[in-house]
Design brief:
Layout: E1 12-14, E2 20-24, H1 35-43, E3 47-50, H2 60-63, H3 68-86, E4 92-97, H4 99-110, E5 116-120, H5 130-139, E6 144-146, E7 164-166, H6 167-180, E8 191-196, H7 205-213, E9 218-223, H8 236-251
Parallel strand pairs: 2-3, 2-4, 4-5, 5-8, 8-9
Antiparallel strand pairs: 1-3, 6-7
Helix pairs in contact: 1-8, 3-4, 5-6
């Protein structure tokens, strides 16, 4: 890291049990956006891992040379640590926002032992033409574009995400889609899909793709008053309550 961790962006590990919850933040964001979910799960008795993904939560320079391989490896390492903590008798759920939702799905395609997953405004399918647009900007020498963080309806809340979006790391998300999406039918655990009806970062249709293509039972929650970062928005308590209720049910 070239800079200190942004205040409030620190990773967190919370003891509990007998079951565990891995909680994953989004692209250019940090654990601040998911801390409310993590604490709600901890209060419900789960052991919780809330990692800070590589390149995030410090300075944008730290993110420029990272990509999907780094983030997915870190997520899987956190899952391994959590599974070791709860032991063979414990069950584990994974909860993710945006890119964290994509990582959650990726883990579920590889780890059939998961008791359930919850995806909040997860990115599943990039908009048509977006990858070509990003490549064109990179070819023209542009490495950064305007930030995508803090898409929140509540005017009194700001997400401590980066103010800019690094394009080369973004490109790796599109490449990850080619690997993950064909394997969604392999996700057979219960899936909670939380979707903001108005989202200026990830189109709500991503949730439809997710719900249609996973192989396991799907439960859907729609949010009327929240934007992309629903975990910090007007309906954050609804998100926390529904995630906790779902996670309790799938591990019971």
């Amino acid at each position: 890291m070239s800079a200190p961790i942004i205040p409030g962006a620190e990773p967190e590990s919370i003891d509990g049990g007998p079951h565990g919850a891995l909680v994953l933040h989004g692209f250019t964001g940090n654990p601040n956006s998911m801390r409310g979910v993590a604490h709600a799960l901890a209060e419900a008795g789960f052991a919780v891992e809330l990692p800070l993904l590589p390149g995030h939560g410090t300075a944008i320079a730290d993110m420029l040379k990272t990509g999907w391989a780094d983030w997915s490896s870190a997520a899987e390492a956190a899952l391994d640590s959590l599974e070791a903590k709860v032991g063979a008798d414990g069950k584990v759920v994974v909860v993710g926002l945006s890119m964290g939702g994509a990582l959650t799905l990726w883990l579920a395609t590889r780890r059939p032992e998961l008791a359930g997953i919850a995806c909040i405004n997860a990115i599943v399918a990039a908009p048509e033409g977006m990858e070509d647009g990003v490549r064109a900007m990179l070819d023209a020498g542009t490495e950064l574009m305007d930030g995508i963080g803090s898409d929140i309806a509540d005017p009194d809340v700001t997400e401590s995400a980066y103010a800019e979006t690094p394009l080369r790391p973004l490109l790796t998300l599109f490449e990850a889609e080619l690997d993950t999406r064909p394997k969604l039918p392999d996700v057979t655990c219960p899936v909670l899909v939380v979707t903001s009806k108005q989202d200026h970062v990830v189109a709500p249709e991503n949730s439809d793709v997710l719900a249609d293509e996973v192989g396991g039972p799907v439960e859907r929650v729609w949010l009327d008053r929240s934007y992309h970062v629903a975990t910090l928005d007007f309906e954050k308590d609804v998100v926390n309550d529904r995630v906790v209720e779902f996670c309790r049910r799938v591990v019971s």
